[in-house]
Design brief:
- The structure is a single chain.
- By secondary structure, the protein is of the alpha+beta class.
- The chain is built from 15 helices and 14 strands.
- Strands 7-8-4-1-3-2-14 form a seven-stranded mixed beta sheet, sandwiched between helices. Strands 9-10-13 form a three-stranded antiparallel beta sheet, with helices on one face. A two-stranded antiparallel sheet has the order 5-6.
- Strand 9 and strand 10 form a beta hairpin.
- It is globular.
C-alpha cells in the first residue's frame, strides 16, 4: 500500500480496556472472580481471563491505533478524555448490558458511549474480532482529538474506510466494503437466505447516478458516535472519495482544499480546481474510474450472495505488513480486586437509561458493604446525583470518594 508512510508510535494518554465475565453483575458469584490488569504502552486491559487473552487484546488495540496514525500521517496521537473499554466474555451477559434500540437489544458485537467526562467502548468477546464493531466510532474519537473538524463527508468517509480494518500479527488488510454482509444466515450449521439484506456500499455506488460533488461536499450531516444506517449514497460516496484520496496520496491537497473553502470562503468548484488541479467534472470522473477499478470489492459482493462462502475473506483492497507485531508490544501484569471491576461496569451502565436502575442498585449494594466499598462506586453515584441536579447528595458522595482515594483524578 504505497500511501502508508513510515512512522514511529509515541506514547499518548492511556486508555482502559475492561474485560468482564458472566458473573460480573451477579453478587453471589463475584467472590469467585480473579482479575488481572495487563498494561501496554497506550492501553490497559483488565480481565478475568488469562494473561494471554489480555495481552492479545492490548496488541490489537496498539495495532489499531498505529494504523490510524499512519493513515493520517500522525506520529503523535492524543485523547483529552479517558476511554474505558469494557468487553464481556460471555454473549448472554453482554446482551443484558447492551443498548436497546427500537425495543430490541442491539445485535452488534460492540457499542460506543460518548460522555462529557469519559467515553466508553463496550465489546462482546464471544465474537473473536469484536473490536471491529466499534472501529467506526473509534476513528471518530481519534479524529476529534487529532484532526481539525472539517466537512461531514471527510469525517464519515474516513471512519467508514477505517472500519474495514482487519489486522493480525503479520499484516493489515484495509479498503474493503465495511457495510458488506452475507446474504445468508447460519445457525447450527444450517444456512438460510436473508430476505432483503441491506445493500453494501459497493452496491449503492453501482447506481448510475451519484451525488454531484458540490452537493456531497456541502451536505449537512450530524457527525457523531450514535448514527443511523450507513447504507446510503452519502456514506457510500464519502467512503469512496476518502478511499481515492488516501490511496492516491492526496491528503496534502485535501488540506489545501479545506483552507480554501473554510478559511478563504471559495466555492467548492473553485477550491477543487485550485487544490487538486482538476475541474469538478474531472475530479468526479477520477473517483468513479477508481471505484470501478477496485475488482476485490465486486468479487466480495458476488461471494456474499453464495451459500457457504465467507465474503470477509476477500473483502479488502490493500495489504501491507504491520509495524507492530506481538513481540514489539511490551506488557506488564498486576492483580486487582473484583469490587473495583463491578463498580466500573455499573458506572458505565449508568450512561444507558434502560440500564440505569439496575446499575444504581449494584452501586448501592457495593457502598453499603464495607468490604466492597470503593471510590469508583462512590464517584459513580456522585455522577448520577449530578445528572439529577441533586448537588447536596452529589457532594456527599464525591467527598466520600476522596476520603477513600484522594488521588482519584476522576473525582476531582
Amino acid at each position: 500500500m504505497g500511501h502508508i508512510p513510515s512512522g514511529r508510535v509515541l506514547r499518548c494518554l492511556s486508555l482502559i480496556l475492561l474485560i468482564f465475565p458472566v458473573e460480573v453483575l451477579d453478587a453471589t458469584a463475584a467472590s469467585e472472580q480473579k482479575w488481572l490488569r495487563i498494561s501496554s504502552d497506550h492501553f490497559t486491559v483488565l480481565t478475568d481471563g488469562s494473561e494471554k487473552q489480555g495481552r492479545e487484546v492490548a496488541i490489537r488495540l496498539e495495532q489499531m491505533r498505529w494504523v490510524f496514525g499512519q493513515l493520517l500521517m500522525k506520529s503523535k496521537l492524543k485523547l483529552s478524555e479517558p476511554l474505558i473499554v469494557i468487553a464481556f466474555r460471555d454473549d448472554k451477559e453482554y446482551a443484558q448490558i447492551a443498548p436497546v434500540r427500537q425495543g430490541q437489544t442491539t445485535s452488534d458485537f460492540g457499542f460506543f458511549i460518548e460522555g462529557e467526562d469519559r467515553n466508553y467502548i463496550v465489546l462482546n468477546l464471544f465474537e473473536p474480532e469484536s473490536w471491529r464493531a466499534v472501529s467506526h466510532p473509534f476513528a471518530h474519537l481519534f479524529l476529534d482529538y487529532n484532526y481539525p473538524r472539517t466537512q461531514p463527508w471527510f469525517d464519515e468517509g474516513f471512519a467508514e474506510y477505517f472500519s474495514s480494518l482487519r489486522v493480525d500479527n503479520k499484516q493489515v488488510q484495509i479498503g474493503g466494503d465495511p457495510e458488506l454482509g452475507s446474504a445468508w444466515h447460519e445457525d447450527l450449521g444450517n444456512q438460510t437466505a436473508i430476505r432483503n439484506p441491506p445493500r453494501s456500499l459497493t452496491e449503492v455506488l453501482a447506481a448510475p447516478v451519484w451525488l454531484a460533488v458540490p452537493d456531497l461536499f456541502t451536505m449537512k450531516h450530524e457527525i457523531g458516535y450514535q448514527e443511523g444506517t450507513h447504507h446510503t449514497m452519502f456514506y457510500a460516496q464519502s467512503w469512496m472519495v476518502m478511499h481515492y484520496l488516501l490511496n492516491k496520496n492526496k491528503l496534502a491537497e485535501t488540506g489545501n482544499y479545506f483552507d480554501l473553502v473554510e478559511n478563504q470562503k471559495l466555492p467548492v468548484d473553485q477550491a477543487i480546481q485550485q487544490a487538486y488541479g482538476v475541474s469538478v467534472t474531472q475530479f468526479d470522473q477520477a473517483i468513479k474510474d477508481y471505484f470501478h477499478s477496485l475488482a476485490p470489492l465486486f468479487a466480495a459482493v458476488d461471494a456474499s450472495k453464495q451459500s457457504g462462502r465467507n465474503a470477509g475473506l476477500t473483502n479488502y483492497v490493500d495489504t501491507f505488513p504491520v509495524a507492530i507485531s506481538a513481540d514489539d508490544v511490551g506488557t506488564s501484569r498486576q492483580d486487582i480486586t473484583e469490587a473495583s471491576a463491578r463498580a466500573l461496569v455499573a458506572e458505565m451502565a449508568l450512561r444507558l437509561p434502560e440500564h440505569r436502575d439496575q446499575a444504581t442498585h449494584q452501586l448501592e449494594t457495593l457502598v453499603n458493604d464495607p468490604k466492597l466499598e470503593t471510590p469508583i462506586a462512590r464517584r459513580a453515584l456522585g455522577w448520577l446525583h449530578l445528572q439529577n441536579k441533586d448537588f447536596e447528595q452529589a457532594t456527599e458522595e464525591l467527598n466520600r470518594a476522596l476520603e477513600i482515594d484522594p488521588k482519584d483524578v476522576s473525582v476531582h
